[in-house]
Design goal:
The complex is a heterodimer of chains A (381) and B (306). Chain A is an alpha/beta fold. Chain A contains eleven helices and 15 strands. Chain B has a single domain, classed as ABC transporter involved in vitamin B12 uptake, BtuC. The chains are: A alpha/beta (381), B mainly alpha (306). The interface between A and B is large, with 60 and 54 residues.
């Protein structure tokens, strides 16, 4: 073997190794079927294949982490009747369509897409593959084999606001916001309304990072809010960076989507968590029983066990905890409504008249700040 | 006024992350090697540094582990592109992808870990000066070290003999080879040192800047650092300036949003990129300057005797 060809062989081997490692690193992870399940039982019915497309990494500690916990709850609930798999870090772009189509091609019969940006891609795939069922989180477009589901995260934001309003000393709250869509704007407003319900002097400052997940940038945004006088922070981004920043600077903050106590035990005031489990279990049960129907949407909150506020800090005063429990109980039995007039816009004009209750259509189009939020909604309006 | 002091403080901190990685990449590129794997190296270093601090409680060991991880990955990259002649662009991209995946895999168990308490840094005496103190003298030592490192690099590249050799290798490897310098070993050394600096930056992010580990947490800083070297026309002082400028405009746009300035936030988000490009493009608008500063054989493989 000449020196040259020897070299090219080494080169090929090395490159293949790097490429293989890279593929393993960012490739798809399929959960192995449960160990106790029989390896091959030909008499048994094929397990239902359930797939998830995640926008972020499972290890984000927030949004995607919460979805994956629900996926695990699903496996626990149905055992060997189902097989679940997921793909993480699926960008909200044309790639999403390819991934979702691929998941369908692998025999998955129900596919969950967990971010707003998958709406159009899922709709396209759903139109082509009528025998596969699609569920899209946080969207508003449906088809005969595609439905939507969402959770009322604003209820968690309101409960966080109740605590924040009691705990702030500067009467300035800060929100690190992600992307200016109604869901996020609604959360900022609900957080502020919650705080105002116990402390009318409260003001909320908002900083947009225009991304769901970028820990260094979330840190920078939180730092700037703290520099601007905010002493209790909330975030609608996907990582625990804001809580972590508050911890480092001796301020307070909340966990969002998942319980984040571990990330900042001193700063953590409580976590507004989403439990997607009940919703996923209901859907899969419907598929298994042949009762699943498309074209509908569900929007679950505290009432259905989809939203909760957990791990309240020990130093939160009793009256605030009591108020929190009242709100939670009221949301649960329907006696308390967050979006009920009078609610004023930033300019002091009445948006919801006294005792008027906002319907879901109103809520899904919130594109204004309520009174007490600083700045302008960055929608260009 | 205090708000402005804090703004400057946050700027220096944000710029340090970029400057460290960018200065490292500058050393690579001055030797003629373009390493697009910065993001991957930084992620692996971030998890290595974070894990080390979790287990030992020592920030210094964490930084060392980050540098080690960066240097190791850079060495693999170096051997591939310098001795085996693989394409620098493709290998660098592979390193980036590999680093992102591998760091996520290695860091699974560290996602909810927390770091030990750390003290507040302040330079005695100077930190008590009003405004200037909080702005300039209450930083993590790494912030000052980065400035010192930039000074040292300027001296090394433009005043020392070894720096002259390094630049010669980047400009004309054939001439350097003819003069008897071991071109490939010098390039490998530059790549390893550059990787170590990227690693230091990654560890600084996960240990000090955003003290936690979550997958993908470097979130593009490596790519920005890569772009900075080019926009700064491969001059260390400009790299430092560009890093502070980028960090500063990032913080400024958050500050403006918090202050309720009526500019769409999407526009403000683009501002750091725009401002950095515009300023650095203005500084280095002379094309002759770019030609002088750009390593002539950047990205080109070198085979002795060919």
């Amino acid at each position: 073997m000449t020196d040259f060809s020897k070299r090219s062989v080494i080169k090929m081997v090395a490159l293949t190794a790097v490429a293989a490692a890279a593929l393993v690193g960012c490739g798809k992870k399929e959960e192995a079927p449960k160990a106790e399940a029989p390896a091959a039982a030909p008499a048994k019915a094929e397990p239902l294949k359930v797939a998830f497309a995640y926008v972020g990494p499972v290890g984000d500690g927030g949004w995607t982490f919460a979805h994956d916990n629900a996926r695990k709850a699903l496996e626990k609930e149905f055992g060997d009747k189902i097989v679940t798999s997921f793909v993480e870090n699926v960008p909200e772009s044309a790639d999403a369509e390819r991934v979702i189509r691929d998941l369908a091609g692998q025999g998955n019969k129900i596919i969950f897409g967990t971010t707003f940006g998958y709406m159009e891609p899922m709709l396209k795939v759903a139109a082509d593959l009528k025998d596969v069922k699609f569920e899209h989180a946080t969207g508003y477009k449906q088809a005969e084999n595609m439905r939507t589901y969402d959770s009322r995260t604003y209820e968690g934001a309101y409960m966080a606001g109740v605590i924040a309003g009691k705990m702030t000393k500067s009467n300035t709250l800060g929100v690190v916001a992600s992307i200016p869509i109604p869901e996020v704007i609604r959360n900022i407003n609900s957080f502020t309304l919650g705080a105002q319900s116990v402390n009318p002097k409260v003001k909320t400052k908002v900083v947009w990072v225009n991304e769901w997940f970028n820990p260094p940038k979330e840190t920078e945004a939180a730092t700037s809010l703290i520099n601007g006088g905010a002493d209790v922070l909330m975030q609608n981004t996907d990582s625990p960076a804001v809580l972590k920043t508050a911890e480092a600077k001796g301020k307070r903050a909340f966990g969002w989507d998942s319980d984040m106590t571990a990330y900042g035990p001193k700063a953590h005031l409580g976590s507004a968590v989403i439990n997607w489990g009940p919703s996923y279990i209901k859907s899969v049960r419907e598929v298994l029983e042949g009762k699943w129907t498309g074209g509908t949407g569900s929007w679950w909150g505290v009432k259905e066990g989809a939203i909760d506020f957990v791990s309240v800090a020990a130093d939160v005063p009793e009256d605030a905890k009591k108020k929190l429990d009242e709100v939670k109980a009221g949301l649960k039995d329907g006696s308390f409504v967050i979006w009920k007039g009078p609610i004023m816009g930033q300019d002091g004009k009445e948006i919801l008249a006294k005792d008027a209750v906002a319907d879901d259509k109103f809520l899904s189009g919130v594109n204004f700040y309520v009174k007490g939020v600083d700045g302008k909604v960055p929608s260009g309006k | 006024m205090d708000a402005y002091a804090l703004l400057i403080a946050a700027t220096l901190n944000a710029g340090t992350v970029l400057a460290l990685a960018s200065l490292g990449l500058l050393i690579n590129e001055k030797a003629g090697v373009l390493n697009l794997g910065a993001e991957g190296m930084m992620l692996c270093a971030a998890v290595a540094g974070f894990a080390t601090v979790v287990h030992t409680g020592s920030d210094l060991l964490g930084f060392a582990a980050g540098m080690g991880a960066g240097a190791l990955l850079a060495a693999i990259f170096g051997v591939l592109v310098i001795w085996l002649g693989t394409n620098q662009y493709a290998t660098g991209l592979a390193l980036s992808l590999f680093g992102a995946g591998f760091s996520a895999f290695a860091g699974i168990n560290y996602v909810q870990e927390k770091l030990p308490e750390r003290g507040h840094f302040a330079i005695p005496g100077l930190a008590d000066i009003p405004l200037v103190g909080p702005a300039l003298f209450e930083h993590h030592p790494m912030v000052y070290l980065t400035v010192a490192m930039c000074g040292a690099l300027i001296w090394f590249l433009y005043k020392s003999r070894a720096g002259l050799v390094l630049r010669a290798v980047g400009e004309s490897p054939d001439s350097a080879h003819a003069l008897g310098y071991p071109v490939r070993r010098i390039r490998l050394a530059a790549v390893v040192v550059g990787g170590a600096l990227c690693g230091l930056s990654g560890a600084y992010i996960s240990v000090v800047y955003t003290p936690l580990w979550v997958e993908g947490m470097v979130a593009g800083k490596g790519w920005i650092a890569l772009a900075l070297t080019t926009f700064a026309t491969w001059r260390p002082a400009r790299v430092l300036l560009g890093a502070y400028l980028f960090g500063g405009v990032t913080m400024l746009q958050f500050h403006l949003q918090g202050a309720g300035v009526d500019v769409p936030s999407q526009m403000l988000t683009a501002l750091p990129y725009l401002a950095t490009i515009v300023v650095l493009a203005l500084i280095s608008r002379n094309p002759a300057w770019i030609r002088v500063n750009m390593p002539a054989s950047l990205g080109k493989p070198f085979h002795p005797g060919s």
